[in-house]
Design brief:
Number of strands: 8
Shape: elongated
CATH architecture: Sandwich
Oligomer: single chain
Distance between the termini: 89 Å
Radius of gyration: 23 Å
Order of helices and strands: EEEEEEEE
Number of domains: 1
Number of helices: 0
Strand content: 35-45%
Length: 137
């Protein structure tokens, strides 16, 4: 009686590789407000340093590259839009200042690649005299 092995090869066709990812960059100013800010300090959020391709070392975005799409989302402190909206490349918001405001920027490139960047607006406690120690905006 003979024994043998049957080898079955299954070829799995792979689709194309995933799309190239963009870089997502958030520039926030200021990066902190005092506790109890109560929507008085404008917070500028800028995603225009984001680029079509993800790189290990920052490179300025190519001005001739196709436009990126932006989606901003917020968690934590209550906030309101001053200028721009959740799909603008730059916007200005204000925070209640009762707790940190976590900001997420999702950037999508023309190839369908998606990358997120995260930033947090911190809360600075008042000084012993009850004043905000941060410089005025």
């Amino acid at each position: 009686m003979r024994r043998g092995f049957v080898v079955v090869l299954i070829a799995i066709a792979c689709g194309s590789p995933p799309p190239s990812a963009p870089s997502a960059v958030i520039v926030m100013s200021p990066t902190s407000v005092c506790v109890g800010d109560a929507f008085t300090t404008p917070i500028h959020l800028d995603g225009t340093s984001s680029a079509q391709s993800l790189t290990l070392v920052y490179a300025r975005p190519d001005p001739n590259a196709p436009p990126l799409s932006y989606t901003w989302s917020f968690e934590g402190a209550a906030m309101q839009f001053d200028d721009g909206n959740a799909h603008s490349d730059t916007l200005t918001v204000r925070s209640a200042g009762d707790r940190p405001l976590h900001v997420t920027l999702e950037v999508r490139n023309s190839l369908g690649g998606i990358t997120d960047a995260l930033a947090t607006l911190s809360i600075t406690p008042l000084d012993t005299a009850g004043r905000c120690p941060l410089p005025p905006p």
